[in-house]
Design brief:
This protein is α+β, with helices and mostly antiparallel strands. It has 20 helices and 23 strands. Strands 1-2-3-4 form a four-stranded antiparallel β-sheet, with no helix packed on it. Strand 5 and strand 6 form a beta hairpin. The N and C termini lie far apart (107 Å).
Length: 713
């Protein structure tokens, strides 16, 4: 009996390859439970993620597909960051997706789906989904090779990331590909192919910017070959992107898009759905009349400080906890911790961003199993699940589970990294951290200067859309366009009441005059059509008058101008409003026209030239001569002539933002009406002394509200 007991005890102490006791029934029971859970998660992923993604188009894949299709058809992508221009191209190609938008993606995002641009949108997405399954399997294969976890457990940990994976496949996003590139970079680093490791991360950074921050990790580890590979690859891929897509779109990305993206001013900057520190501090400390009318405390200073403290805290926590790589297992834990750092530093991480957390889950769990107790491993897995699991409705918004789970996971990894060190925070470190926090706070505060300038100018608008634009005063009402989930609609605001005008599809621009009773609307299907609508009747019905886009009417209502575009080449046409079918060609594609206004004499004032640096010109109706308004300095767009013909309103770009300016034509005296790090565009005259315009101040980039401003005499 005693011998048998000893023999049994010896058997129970044998450890198998799964880290479990192989001589008892316990490993078999655990394996069965793991297989059952894995099958259940596979079923959930297939039924709730892959199959719905296979059957439907959804956003965001159409954004990438559309950009790739435009490039394939030879249409320049210079205006790809303009919401309405991009929507117009979507309608022309007949892509069955209600809304599209390319902000804030770099142009290289069009490249992976370029081979599929000849397919129909849904067929292209299916091809992309098939590739993504391959990407995920390759990523798991690489993780299996760099860890001691068996395939079953690596797959199980990956499928615990159920919500991010489901979102990535539903939306046709790139984050499984980025996960693969991070896994490949780590695999190459483990094989001491450090230059290749940096090059792979530069490929990931060309699609989404945040992998470029791995440079911090390489510098911290004094891994100069990896850092050099990342820098070299980024420079090379940027040069390729500029050569392929052109310099103009990259200038706009750098000067207009990236600054707003880094500040979290994209779609829904106050929404806690983002689970980011940036969105949280926006929600708590920044007032906005429509999107965030009741913050906890309206204090831009407090916002700037909290944003700086959290940003510096996340970064310096990593720097203090990490070593120079001398500790055994240090590389695995440092890479594992750096991925949550990327997510915590992101201004607006969507759920699919967290696909890259699979890397942390597999590599981190494997390393924790080697160096620590199983209770910490269990806590690690629970926190990972918390960051990736579905949380119902309002509970998820209030508890911020992705943010809290990721932060706790990050802290646990840092604590493990620092557990065998006697870390002393010296005065130099404290000084550097305080200085960095101060610099970040100042940089956060500067764009908030004058941010409430146009809040008191906002028009009372009961509409619930994402964005309103193209405001035009007509007979005591204001007509405008508004972006909803299902389309861009034509709306009318009268006596503080908003009503939709009778158009079934997208209306992307409109025109009218205060004296007139007929509005002119750009109705878009597979082409842009100018439709007229008498607004004074009880049941107005749209009537087709011409093919064209961006209609403009002269202040006296006599002249109608509009643009036609074909493969990026624009022509401008002019007619009398009473006989629009007799339109005459005024500008024949040179120079390229972006926006146009028409005077009561029938002369055209237009924004022409490159999208990054447009200038204003005037075209005389009587002679057809084009005159450059060289006295109007700076990049200028959206011209609008006053009803008396004495003033010209337009937007001028200043430090990456479009500011509203009014110029006295006789004297050249200018009056700048906006002064904030945001965009005031699409001005129109309500009367000779009052302007209507669209402002995205305090809102997402290009997602504007309507405002009114009186001129100072």
């Amino acid at each position: 009996m005693k011998g048998n007991t000893m023999s049994g005890e010896a058997t129970l102490n044998i450890v198998g390859p799964d880290g479990l006791r192989s001589g008892s029934r316990w490993p078999q029971s655990v394996a069965i439970a793991e297989w059952l859970l894995l099958i259940a998660l596979l079923g959930i992923f297939a039924g709730r993620g892959f199959l719905p993604a296979w059957r439907t188009l959804n956003t965001d894949f159409p954004n990438y597909y559309l950009a790739a299709s435009l490039y394939y058809r030879g249409i320049p992508l210079d205006r790809v960051y303009e919401w309405t221009w991009f929507q117009r191209q979507k309608d022309y190609l007949g892509i069955p997706q209600p809304l599209v938008g390319f902000i804030p993606n770099p142009p290289m995002c069009a490249l992976p789906v370029l081979p599929f641009s000849l397919l129909s949108p849904l067929a292209a997405k299916r091809a992309w989904l098939t590739l993504n399954l391959g990407f995920l399997l390759l990523a798991l294969g690489l993780l299996h090779r760099v860890t001691k976890l068996p395939w079953r457990r690596a797959a199980l940990l990956s499928l615990l990331c159920i919500v991010p994976l489901r979102a990535n496949f539903l939306c046709g996003q790139y984050y499984v590909l980025i996960l693969l590139l991070i896994c490949a970079a780590y695999y190459c680093s483990c094989l001491n192919h450090r230059l290749t490791s940096g090059l792979l991360l530069s490929a990931a950074a060309s699609l989404k910017f945040f992998p470029a921050l791995f440079l911090i990790l390489f510098i911290r580890r004094r891994d100069w070959r990896s850092a050099g590979g990342l820098i070299l690859g980024t420079v090379a891929l940027t040069a390729i992107s500029v050569a392929v897509f052109g310099l103009e779109v990259h200038r706009i990305l750098l000067t207009e898009v990236l600054p707003r993206a880094l500040r979290g001013e994209l779609v829904g900057p106050y929404s806690l759905v983002w689970n980011s520190f940036t969105a949280l501090w926006h929600h708590l400390f920044l007032f906005e009349p429509e999107l965030n009318p009741r913050p906890l405390l309206d204090s831009p200073v407090l916002y700037a400080l909290t944003q700086a403290i959290t940003g510096a805290g996340v970064l310096f926590g990593f720097l203090w906890a990490t070593s120079d790589g001398s500790k055994k297992g240090g590389k695995a834990l440092e890479w594992s911790a750096f991925v949550p750092l990327l997510l915590l530093s992101s201004s607006m991480p969507a759920s699919y961003h967290y696909c890259i957390l699979i890397f942390t889950a597999v590599v981190g769990a494997d390393e924790l199993l080697k160096i620590t107790d199983k209770r910490k491993v269990l806590a690690f897995i629970l926190l990972f699940s918390m960051a990736c699991a579905p949380v119902p409705g309002r509970i998820g918004t209030l508890l911020l589970p992705r943010l809290v789970g990721t932060l706790a996971l990050y802290v646990l990894l840092l604590q493990t990294l620092a557990s065998d060190k006697n870390i002393r925070i010296g005065k130099k470190w404290v000084a550097v951290a305080v200085l960095a926090t101060a610099v970040l706070a100042i940089s956060n505060l500067r764009p908030l200067k004058n941010r409430t300038e146009d809040f008191r100018r906002r028009l009372s608008n009961a509409s619930t859309g994402y964005s309103a634009g193209n405001p035009v005063a007509m007979g005591g009402r204001v007509i405008f366009t508004e972006m909803f989930e299902e389309k861009y609609a034509a709306m009318a605001l009268e006596n503080h009441r908003v009503q939709a005008l009778p158009f079934s599809g997208d209306v992307l621009s409109l025109a009218g005059s205060e004296r007139g009773a007929v509005g002119y609307f750009e109705y878009v299907t597979r082409q842009s059509s100018i439709m007229q609508l008498p607004l004074g009747t009880s049941n107005p019905m749209p009537e087709y008058i011409a093919e064209g886009e961006q209609p403009k009417i002269s202040p006296d209502g006599r002249w109608l101008a509009f643009i036609r575009e074909e493969y990026g080449r624009t022509t401008v046409w002019l007619s009398e409003a009473q006989s629009p079918t007799a339109a005459q060609l005024i500008i024949n594609g040179a120079p390229s026209i972006l926006d146009v206004s028409v005077t009561s004499e029938g002369d055209l004032i237009a924004a022409a030239g490159a999208v990054n640096g447009p200038h204003l010109i005037i075209v005389r109706r009587s002679t057809g001569v084009v005159e450059h308004l060289s006295e109007i300095a700076g990049p200028a767009r959206y011209p609008s002539i006053s009803p008396d013909g004495k003033r010209l309103a337009f937007s001028r770009r200043k430090w990456g933002s479009w500011q509203l300016v009014v110029r006295e034509l006789a004297t050249g005296v200018e009056q700048r009406l906006t002064h904030t790090a945001c965009n005031a565009t699409l001005p129109s005259w309500e009367d000779p002394h009052t302007l209507l315009y669209a402002s995205d101040c305090g809102r997402g980039l290009g997602l504007s509200a309507l405002a009114r401003v009186a001129l100072q005499d």
